Amino acid sequence: MNIEELHKKPPYGMIAILFFGAFVAFLNNTLLNVALPTIMEEFDVKPAIVQWLTNGYMLVNGILIPASAFFIQRFTNRNLFLTATSLFTLGTALAAFAPSFGVLIAGRMIQASGAGMMMPLLMNVMLTAFPVERRGTAMGMFGLVIMAAPAIGPTLSGWIVEHYSWRTLFEIILPFSIIVLVVAFFKLKNITPVRDIQVDVLSLILSSIGFGSILYGFSTAGDKGWAVPEVYGTITIGVISIVIFIFRQLYMKDPMLEFRIYKYPMFALSSVIMVIVSGSMFSGMILTPIYVQTVRGISPFHAGILMLPGAILMSAMSPVTGRLFDKYGGRILAAIGLATMTVTTFLFSQLTMETGYYYLMVLYTVRMLGMSLVMMPVMTNGLNQLPMSANPHGTAMNNTLQQIAGAIGTAVLVTVMNNRMETKGEELAKSVAAAGESLNNQELVNALEQQAALSGINFAFFISALLAAAAFFLALFMKRSAPPQTDQLYGKQVQTK
To answer: Where are the transmembrane segments (predicted)?
Structure first.
């Protein structure tokens, strides 16, 4: 089937299989966080050790996603999806029946090796199957799948862990994963082009060390601080490795990850906006639960309920946003979304000890509504400017940058919050001492700690609002884009429609 026939009749059945596989993988990733305390107790491991269930998963993803451009070009989409789903199924079975913590870690790593390939592969299949004028709708449906998992994952896992064993989290995923694997074996066909390229081992090593070290360093910084050699050492190693990796890619005929795609201005602009928005986005997901549970003392269940409408709305809006993108383009949607994010994030920086529960729920929901108008339009508009041969590199680059931006954004905002909290705590302690009151009163100390924490959270939200404002300014320069007639990366004629 040539590209014109494919665009006239996209393989919806095949894409549905890929969608379901990706949904299962993303749902699994959002289920586990709530269960970590229970797992820690059963296997008698410390918090720093149990965190490797999430950190290890993230690191394997960080290593595999940059390499996904090579895999997608070298292997057929059928073989790649079957391999990824097989690995994910094997990892899920290992985790479900793990007799020890070491086996559970191994299961999660194998899961991640399969899940890490699914999103880049699915995105590349959709970019191949749909013409530019219909990609918005297609990517909107993709967004529905990707956002639905985080929307229901934490609430579902909280209920399961409360009533059943943590192993149930894996046991309910396993049959769905097996079904996807069996159906894909019989129904999946090849539609993506394949090139006979060889892996550059040195590039793979540099990429793995570079992206893995940066993700680990920034993820650890939020917990351990910046002065620990484990943090600044791994970040330094990561940066040096990535610089060498980039220079190597620029001089290779068939690079593992193509950095020359940044010669396309709309893709370059979309990458910058996505990095800023990803950094800002995590403020709401990290800071809101801290405020609600730590400062206000609201239960974890009610904290999850507070954030649920926003997550559901963001997921439901994805198909709508996709259709609007096809009709009006990305700039107007991104501008409206980022303006909404800027205003609501600023309002989050004005929280008090008496801010109402339902006001928080509405504010968080409106913020997520704004976010739903940003992510897909910005990303799709940038990818639309790339020639088809560069799509695997574009999807790999976007997914890699989102992971790194999320890790950096979280680490920086947590650091900003902690520094402001310490400064405010010292100021309050001095003012209390000056007034002649004793700091031996535990109730008074608790009240001071809450006020200091509130000040830190508000300041971190203010910084996040500035990031959203910067992204809004950049979005004003977006232009509607379409692929070039000539592949400027590889000097070939490309078929566009």
So the answer is: 12-32, 52-72, 79-98, 110-130, 142-160, 166-186, 198-219, 231-251, 272-292, 298-320, 332-351, 357-379, 457-478
Is the predicted pLDDT of residue 1 greater than 60, yes or no? Answer: no
Q: How far apart are CA 492 and CA 477, in angstroms?
A: 29
Q: How far is 470 from 484, CA to CA, in rounded Å?
A: 29
Rounded to whole angstroms, what are the CA distances from 107 to 100, 182, 496?
Answer: 11, 21, 43
Please check whether residue 259 lies inside any domain of the structure.
no
Is residue 31 in a domain?
A: yes
Q: Do residues 182 and 47 both lie within one domain?
A: yes
**Which residue, among 195, 200, 204, 246, has the nearest Cα to 72 in the 3D structure?**
195
pLDDT value at residue 480:
85
pLDDT of 250 above 80: yes
| Domain finish residue from 147, 180, 196 | 196
Together in a domain, 150 and 249: no
Single-letter amino acid code for the residue at 230: E
> Can you tell me whether residue 157 is helix, strand or coil?
helix
Domain count, the chain: 3
Q: Do both 428 and 289 map to the same domain?
A: yes
Measure CA 65 to chain center.
Answer: 12
> Is-contact 209 236, C-beta < 8 A?
no
Does residue 90 contact residue 108 with C-beta atoms inside 8 Å?
Answer: no
Q: Dump pLDDT digits (tens) for 16-54.
A: 888 788 888 877 777 776 677 778 888 887 766 777 787
Q: What is the pLDDT of residues 154-180, one digit of tens each?
A: 667 767 777 788 888 889 889 999 998
pTM of the model: 0.78
**Strand (E) or helix (H) holding 370:** helix 357-372
Structural domain harbouring 60: 1-196
